[in-house]
Design a protein that fits this description.
Blueprint lengths: L1 E2 L3 E2 L1 E2 L2 E2 L11 H23 L5 E12 L7 H16 L7 E6 L8 E9 L2
Parallel strand pairs: 5-6
Antiparallel strand pairs: 1-7, 2-7, 3-4, 5-7
Length: 121
């Protein structure tokens, strides 16, 4: 089993789409942030394993969305992460998922993603 640490949508030292979803960030931007955060998770797994071909199955995705109290499109936002996993791994990328709305994330990020994968050793 490989666990990724929570990752945010950061490229270099630039946080993409910082702020609260529903106020500073719209749902489509947050969807993109979830995609980038998920790719950052995969980058860490790639570094640890040496190849993403060792990923047999995505077991679980957890997403945290920094949002206003009335924002209710949390599942749509996390589809950004889920969609990229299915694009990369096909059926092995299909997974259960939890999405949690939160008041604040590190570095002002709008989305954070964690992955758990079954891997070959």
């Amino acid at each position: 089993i490989a666990y990724s640490a929570g990752q945010i949508a950061v490229v270099g030292d630039q946080v993409l789409f910082p702020g609260k979803v529903g106020r500073d960030v719209d749902a489509d931007q947050a969807y993109q942030a979830a995609r980038v955060a998920c790719l950052n998770c995969l980058s860490g797994i790639l570094e640890a394993l040496g190849s993403l071909e060792k990923v047999k199955k995505v077991l679980k995705v957890t997403g945290y969305v920094c949002c206003t109290e009335d924002f209710d499109r949390l599942p749509y936002v996390m589809n950004g992460a889920s969609d990229v996993l299915v694009q990369i791994f096909g059926d092995a990328g299909k997974h259960p998922r939890s999405t949690i709305g939160v008041g604040r994330l590190a570095f002002g990020a709008s989305v954070e993603v964690e992955l758990v994968c079954e891997v070959e050793v």
